[in-house]
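Repro:
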Amino acid sequence: MSQSTPLFCQKQFFRLPDGVHYLNCATRSPFSLSVEQAGHDALTRHANPFGLRPDDFFDGSNAVRTKFAQLINLPDPERVALIPSVSYGMAIVARNLPHKPGIRAGQHILLVGDEFPSDVYAWDRVVAELGLTIRTVPMPQGFPKGSRWNEQLLDAITTDTALVVAPPAHWMYGTRFDLVAIGQRAREVGAWLAVDGTQSVGALPFDWQQVQPDVLICAGYKWLMGPYSMGLACFGPAFDGGVPLEEGWMNRLDSNQFHRLMDYQPLYRPKAYRYNVGEQTHFIQMPMLDAALTQLLDWQPARIQAYTEALMAPVWAELEPLGCHVDAIDGTVGRSHHLVGVWLPERADPMAVAQVLHERNVSISARSGVLRIAPHLYNTPDDAQALVDALRVALR
């Protein structure tokens, strides 16, 4: 379906009860009915493993790779690896950083401020081993934030930058980062670009061929709408021939020939296969992730952005008189629409406000000094109005 064809509310495809206003997909996506059914079917199918074939250990993950590659405009699905978490994917980057061409003591790893811990803790050991430093570009004070934050990040990428770690949209604030410009700048100075797409890919368009990152890492249980403890990572040519975290037997050439597994194989399957987590088959969860990706390919991230923009636009106008602020819409450097940080009045306690909202069945997240509002296609104008009404009570 064309990305220009508008989407209407898709709540009928979810098991969300009436009276519950779930604006919290950035914490965890609810399962659609198709994902739920895929899980039930897999449980039934694998209650009896009789007739299981060697290829059954590989077919499910191959289908998921293909669909994820299609979602992000990646021509080669063999560059997709199955991982359990973002921390696992970032650990692969850290493991291979010592082998990066031109790496030298005194360089830095560049992060955006207030980044998710998995994108921060990953570098402690390799920084100490290689004599690197961490440089952080903090969120600017005042509004608008996005354009200035992007400018400051680009200015910080120099020939002393070994690695840039940046998201398409900030996990707390929803601030967008122009990854096409950041990727181009990183390539100019010889730095790697590692993208944590967890809080964007699936709801915000991402084009691998335009961004050209070295790594894209996504947890599967948020905007990819799949099960917990599954993720996907894409590795560019810089990681061909790299060092995996573990030596899983399934990652070796001809590993589907079970009758020859004792003929130990020194060669890996091509490209990103070496980075797959062990037991990557996930007989129960893989069909659920497959169903989620199938649905996203039909919905399309651009149409999800358009729906959430139209749904929430009246909310932001109604919150201004309450002393709340959201960042400006400014193309690829403004705020996203599926994840929006709402800055509360200085006197307000975000945790106390979130508690009032919870008591009124409005689910959001409090992160630092902001409320994180994360709508999706299952949300309705009633959900948006419930948020406004609850905030009026909480902030009066």
